[in-house]
Amino acid sequence: MEITVERREGRNVTVVAVAGSVDGATAAALVASFRGEVGGGAVRLVGDFSRVDYTSSAGLRALLETVKETRQRGGDLRLAAVQPDVLRVLDLAGFTNILKLFADVEQAVASFPD
Length: 114
Description:
The chain is α/β, with parallel strands linked by helices and 114 residues long. 39% of the residues lie in helices and 32% in strands. It is globular, with a radius of gyration of 13 Å.
């Protein structure tokens, strides 16, 4: 799994792009990345999932922990470009009712108020 972080200063949004599988072996790295951003004050996060091909329950826990933390701090975690196989897992787990999903990163970034 690969994680890259990009700050969108004009919108005060941080995009966390994830590539590969999010599973028991890699979820800890994703949690650490999200925690680092939130701990540094970045509470308006977009998870770019355009290159995530699989997520396990460990990945779901990482998302749930992050969305709770960002919302407690007045922000949110939004997902962009979720691939069909991952979307199916999110839907079956009820996460499509918890997370806000967008077709692409630009829409997700723009969804945060100014």
